[in-house]
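Entry type: protein chain
Record version: 2
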Amino acid sequence: MPIEVKNYFLDSSPRATFTMVSYEEMRAVEHATSAQKYMAELQMLLKQEKITCETNVAHINRSNASMELYEANMNEKLVKEEMSRIRNDWKAMSARIEQGEVNINRIFGMLGRIEFSLKELPEPKKDRIQARFCSLRAEAYNVIKLIMDCMKINCDGEARLHKS
């Protein structure tokens, strides 16, 4: 940097120091910040998905228990109501499956963005963040399996609810 430019910046503050940072160093800081931001977002998404799956499974278990009492008192009016409920449950189940797919794709997308940010980091910075990412990636795959299991439980639970 030309001395005139340095003097211009430093003249108004005689005690100030001027530090030059390379483009590569700035990009490394940006990628490290991005990776950490994405990891925090992914951590929150995984936490939300775990809660959602637990809630859905609890709902299915309650529905199964109440259905056994319901079947004992079935008449023609109740059969029509049950058919309507089956249609509504089918729509709701389809929506949950679609939402599960969307959430799994979001998780994979976030993992991809984090991996890209990590690839762009120099080794010393990468090593510090890589360990946390490996742990988070393992948790993400566990949550993806949980989402899939939850979808299976929902489908099995709905099938049990509507069996003849």
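Comment: Helices lie at 3-11, 23-72, 76-119, 123-161.
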